[in-house]
Write a structure and sequence with these properties.
Blueprint (H helix, E strand, L loop, with lengths): L5 H33 L8 H11 L8 H5 L3 E7 L4 E7 L3 H13 L13 E7 L16 E5 L17 E5 L20 E3 L18 E9 L12 E7 H47 L12
Parallel strand pairs: 1-4, 4-5, 5-6, 6-7
Antiparallel strand pairs: 1-2, 2-3, 7-8
Amino acid sequence: MARVNSSQKKQQKSFIIMIVAIVLVALAICFVLFDKYSSKSSLLENQNFAKALSSAIGKAPAFISQDDLAKPEYLAVSYDASSKTYSIGIGYDGFLDGYNDYLKKSEAGEDVSGIDLSKFVKSASYKGESELFDDIKYFTGVKVMELSELSFTDSSVFAGLSKITDANVSYCGLTEVSGFADYGNHEGFEVLNITGNSVEDYSPLEYFKDKVIVNHYYTLKPNEDGSYDSSSIVAVSQTLEEYLEQLAEEEEGGEEADGEEEAEGEEAENEGAEGGEADGGETDGGEEAEEPEEEPAE
């Protein structure tokens, strides 16, 4: 058996080191390529949103599927323009039971400090400029949705969310609401809040106008002794039904005012005409006709 001298041993060692280095470099390249590939979603248009969802869902953006986005029952996304921060919350099975329990006890004035909804919600946040959130359309399993200060191409992105029972889409720059037209037919539907949007035509929502909130704000109501505390903060909501009634009353009042002004104008004209006739009569009949002067006799 041939003996391996020291020179050959060095060559073998160098060869092994070179192979190991090549493998490590190849692995590093593969890792970089994989990271670059997996960090971009082919499904979602908003890549910043995709990355935030990745941390909440536990999947790289490239592997987030429509099935993954159809699973959550709760979705909350809001934007704080002052800090340029997006906050995202996603709730799965068990969240709605806890959420409904929280609402019932809160409305009944019971202590809700012991109800921790955070254990049912996965959250994420990121900083960025205002951007479109049309990818909301993929959350087809959502039942409770809370969106605020976001931007959308139009309301059509909400049309396919057929399981919605409670939706808050406030201050999202919407100018039409046709995408919500079928919400009143959803099983168990309760409310749609579209406060703070510049909508002129509410006709698609009029058949469930008692469940649509167009104005929601908080005001202070003094206690019986005139003092104020945390319980003095009262939420005030105006439904679409109440808003349309208000518009009708204002329009009716405007027509009455116009009619009164028109009547007053006609009365003033009539009084002016009568006054003119009276002045004319005094001039014709009240003044004595002057007799012609006699010429002196020659």
